[in-house]
From TrEMBL:
It comes from the Eukaryota. It comes from Anopheles dirus. This is Uncharacterized protein. The chain crosses the membrane at residues 33-52, 64-85, 184-206, 271-291, 297-316. It is a multi-pass membrane protein. GO terms for biological process: signal transduction. The keyword Chaperone does not apply. One of its GO terms (cellular component) is plasma membrane. The keyword Transmembrane applies.
């Protein structure tokens, strides 16, 4: 499904779309019922039997962990639901990107090589992202039973009154009255039920990686505009006026397409990123507090949640920052073409390009603030500040 062919070099994440098609998020929407069935299954297994459980030894820390897991589950659910609701705008973005890239399919120049290079790097990122989430599954679902079963059978050799085993759980929950903390049979049933739900949540987390890739493809369009302007600057002294007119018309259209894709992508991602940023702020704060209070094996599972949300926000911020910088660089590329020495018909094209480049192209979170490296650093700083307040208060 993730195999890459030569025809995929000028297409937009074809291997990822094949996976999304299985869930009904791409191509045939009649298959969307599969996504809803899986969402209901995970809701029944993870969300409904998940109380804010208070343990005797660490009452407040137990609440913190339960709330953290609920926030993380809510982020997964809301993201995939919004993607399903806005599947048509996402489809429009992908089609516009593919139409722009197809213009370079039959050429052998710097632009076509850049497209192939970016597509190759995106494919490698996608495969690496899969491997990372497979590690998440191992740590989250395999590590607890790998510890619990040997520990239980070690305790089995002791007298009944000396057995103090309490199983380490991947999630803080009570599964419909089962004694999953002390009964080995109930724990096994719980683990068998939770594992498929966690695998599906991991699939949702991986599917969010397609959002990173769409931002990267949008950035690629701005890079192509820069590349075409650099090529124009080198060849302009030897070109006829009609050829300059044709070249610049193509550059303006490509730049306009890139800006329209950014606007459309921002309308699709705005709510997702707002939820992601708020959830990240709360989640990082709560997880830091829990880890600082509970130096035990449960930190492994909580650390998986921390790593996942941190890496996602870092990717969104880095790619959003790159997109803004590439659009801003178009203005410098245009000035380097010495357009002011050209006839007025050529200068009009450059003025339009420069004016478009001065309009900041960015991805926002709910239209409140831009998603970039600066705001990501502020988010981490704010999370740490809230953590320090919680640490002092509790």
């Amino acid at each position: 499904m993730l195999a890459r062919t030569a025809a995929d070099n000028f297409r937009v994440m074809p291997y990822n779309l094949r996976v999304l098609a299985v869930l009904g998020l791409w191509s045939n929407r009649s298959k969307l019922y599969r996504l809803y069935v899986l969402l209901v299954f995970t809701f029944v297994v993870i969300i409904i039997p998940k109380p804010v459980r208070i343990s005797d030894r660490h009452p407040f820390e137990s609440i913190v962990r339960s709330v953290s897991e609920l926030i993380f589950a809510a982020l997964c659910y809301l993201t995939i639901i919004i993607m399903a609701i806005k599947s048509e705008p996402f489809r429009q973005v992908i089609l516009q990107l593919e139409q722009a890239l197809m213009q370079f399919r039959h050429t052998d120049d710097q632009c076509s090589r850049l497209i192939e290079q970016v597509n190759t790097s995106i494919h490698r990122f996608s495969v690496g992202y899969i491997k990372l989430h497979l590690c998440y599954i191992v740590l989250f679902n395999v590590a607890p039973p790998a510890y619990n079963f040997p520990h239980y059978f070690t305790q089995w050799t002791l007298p009944l009154e000396n057995r103090t085993v309490e199983f380490m759980l991947p999630l803080m929950q009570d599964l419909y009255g089962l004694d999953i903390r002390h009964n080995i049979g109930h724990y096994a049933v719980s683990w068998i039920a939770i594992t498929p739900a966690c695998v599906f949540c991991t699939l949702i987390m991986w599917s969010r990686g397609t959002l990173f890739m769409l931002i990267r493809y949008n950035t690629l369009l701005y890079q192509l505009v820069n590349s075409l302007l650099e090529k124009f600057g080198c060849e302009a002294p030897r070109m006829m006026l009609w050829r300059k007119h044709h070249r610049l018309q193509r550059i303006v259209e490509l730049h306009h397409c890139a800006i329209e894709c950014t606007k459309l992508l921002d309308s699709c991602l705005s709510l997702i990123l707002l939820i992601q940023c708020v959830g990240c702020l709360l989640l990082l704060c709560l997880i830091l507090f829990y880890v600082s209070r509970n130096p035990n094996l449960n930190v492994i599972n909580v650390g998986v949640l921390f790593a996942s949300i941190f890496i996602e926000m870092m990717c969104f911020s880095s790619l959003g920052n790159q997109l803004t910088e590439e659009n801003a660089a178009i203005s410098n590329s245009a000035f380097n073409c010495r357009w002011y020495n050209e006839p007025i018909v050529v200068r009009k094209y450059f003025i339009r390009i420069i004016l478009q480049a001065h309009r900041k192209a960015t991805i926002t979170a709910g239209r409140f603030y831009n998603v970039n490296i600066v705001t990501f650093a502020q988010l981490i700083k704010t999370s740490y500040t809230y953590y320090m307040i919680m640490k002092e208060m509790f």
